[in-house]
Amino acid sequence: MKLPRVSAVVAAAVLAPAVLFPSTASAADAPQPAGVSGPDTASGSAPDAAPTEGTDGQEQRDRAEIQRILADKETGPGVREAAEKALKGGAAELRHFLEVDLAKQRGDDLRVKVSQIMASGGPAVRAAAGKALDGGDADITKFLKEGWPAAQAEDQDRAEIQRILADKETGPGVREAGEKALKGTAAEMRHFLETELPQQRAIDNRVKVAQLIASGGRAVREGAVKAMNGSDADITKFLKEGWPAAQAEDDRVAVLVVLADKNISRDTAEAAQKALNGTPADVAHFLQVELPKLRSDDNRVKVSQIMASGGPAVREAAGKAMDGSDADILAFLNEGWAKARALDEAAANKPADKPADKPADKPAGQQGQGTQQPQTVQPAALTGTTTDATGSGSGAAAAAGTGTSTGVGVEATATRTGTLAATGTDGLGWEAGGAAAAVAAGAALVAISRRRSAES
Q1: Is residue 318 part of a domain?
Q2: Which of 105, 232, 304, 431 could form a disulfide with 202 if both were Cys (CB 3.0 to 4.6 A apart)?
Q3: What is the span of the domain harbouring residue 391?
């Protein structure tokens, strides 16, 4: 019974290596499960090394560069169209656009841009753009970066000088220097604007203020003298601010002078008072526009009155004046009336042509006596309308005292109080009872005169 137990122990000891070791070797030779990779014993590299970059990376970079070009607002239409077409293609189309199409399309777009600039630019811009278009791509690029801004500045300077010359307020010194600069180079135009313009403008301003001192009203003269004693800045400030205020003051004085004349018509007085109740602009408008017209109407009424009561020469001269312009009316009142009246007075004082009496026909007591001269009738008085010029204003204010004095310049027999001599016609003075008839006839003659003017 002991032998079999010993044999079993020995057999187990002999079979144990065969059972254990073959199982270890077969594990290495057995197939691995799918999806599981074993260690790379041949390469010897680390398991997490990055793979080498291929063509996919270059394509992504090209696509990003084209998208950046499209996002640029300065990209022209030709480049934009070609880029959008390339983005729809593959890597080869992207690369071809960047290496070939981009440069060509960009050059074409720049030339189109220069052509547009040339069409809308000034003289200097057009000249520079045309010269660039005659050159190569480098000339086009240089024009856009340097030539265009310089040409624009030149054209702007030219336009500014032309604007200055077009201003009616530009003085003679500035005008002369500006015209000279326009005929010169870009540098000369720039020198005029930066240096000559302020100098010449200061001189012109002083000349203008000196003229205001000579011709302005009291307020204008006082302000102008004060400005002349100051700096160029004081002169400029006076012309911009002081002069308008002083002129408005002088204009009101001129209207008050018009109202102070007792011989003005009712229409003139009403218009003058209305202007005084308004703004400085209303006052200036009255003096510059309304007053000359009102005085013209008053002068025509005056001439019609003279015509109705005057002698033959006066009536003839007055009729011609009534058929003429306002200037003819004023000329008659200032000169023609006196000349015509002198003719009528000379005719009235001329001895009558009678045959000499025979001595035998006269009584003895009258032998040897001369012919009796006709008695000269003193001319009747005709009340006129006179307005004294005050000289208290320039511009609009001066209008209040010029060209409207009916009787100013007539011979000394016409007094400043408004009494104007008649023309030697007997019995036609206002005191003889003919005033109403003369006024009525004058109104009719005014109407006839205006109708003739309208028909002609």
Answers
A1: yes
A2: 232
A3: 267-348+378-455
Instruction: Provide the whole-model pTM.
Output: 0.51
Instruction: Name the domain boundary from 161, 189, 224.
Output: 161
Confidence of residue 54 (pLDDT cuts 50, 70, 90): low
Domain count, the chain: 2
Query: Which two three-digit tokens encode residue 207?
Result: 């000349």
In a domain, 2, yes or no: no
Would you say 132 and 140 are in contact if contact means Cβ atoms under 8 Å apart?
yes
Q: In this model, does residue 420 exceed pLDDT 70?
A: no
Residue 396 in domain: yes
Q: Are 333 and 364 in contact (CB under 8 A)?
A: no
**119-125: Cβ within 8 A, 24+ apart:** 121/151, 121/152, 121/155, 122/151, 122/152, 122/154, 122/155, 122/156, 122/158, 122/159, 123/155, 123/158, 124/150, 124/151, 124/152, 124/154, 124/155, 124/158, 124/186, 125/151, 125/152, 125/155
d(CA 274, CA 293): 16
**Could you report the per-residue pLDDT of 190-236, keeping only the tens digit for each?**
999 999 999 999 999 999 999 999 999 999 999 999 999 999 999 99
Q: Is residue 430 predicted with pLDDT exceeding 50?
A: no
Q: Is position 124 within any domain?
A: yes
